[in-house]
Automatic annotation (TrEMBL):
One of its GO terms (molecular function) is transmembrane transporter activity. InterPro entries: EmrE-like, Small_drug/metabolite_transptr, Small_multidrug_res. Keywords: Cell membrane, Membrane, Transmembrane, Transmembrane helix, Transport. It is found in: Cell membrane. This is QacE family quaternary ammonium compound efflux SMR transporter. One of its GO terms (cellular component) is plasma membrane. It comes from the Bacteria. Its main location: membrane. Belongs to the drug/metabolite transporter (DMT) superfamily. Small multidrug resistance (SMR) (TC 2.A.7.1) family. Gene3D superfamilies: 1.10.3730.20. It is a multi-pass membrane protein. The keyword Cell membrane applies. The chain crosses the membrane at residues 31-50, 57-76, 82-103.
Length: 104
């Protein structure tokens, strides 16, 4: 159950990072509100996951999910391009996150 909370929290990290960029320096209310809500929920989930998982592993997995998710959201929104090298590096990052989960 803690791993599921961690995965959801990492996903929310991608949401708040994307909303932060879309908020235009907190000048746009809807993305700003989405940023605040997703940030709080993401942190609460991470904190709860860390009650049962090693802090270093939990944080690394959370950041990895958030980083990959943020890039994929930017690609889906056509704000960034996903070339071969970038895709390969994201796959390596996903493999590292999966490896951390496997050995935890």
């Amino acid at each position: 159950m803690h791993w599921l909370a961690l995965i959801l929290s990492g996903t929310l990290e991608a949401v708040w990072a994307t909303a932060l960029a879309a908020s235009d320096g907190f000048r746009r209310p809807r993305p700003t509100a989405l940023f605040g809500g997703a940030l709080v929920l993401s942190m609460v989930g991470l904190a709860w996951a860390m009650t049962a998982l090693p802090a270093g592993t939990a944080y690394a997995v959370w950041v990895g999910i958030g980083a990959v998710g943020t890039v994929l959201l930017a690609v889906a929104r056509r704000e960034e391009r996903l070339g071969f090298a970038r895709a390969a590096l994201l796959l390596v990052l996903v493999a590292c996150v999966a490896g951390l989960k496997a050995v935890a």
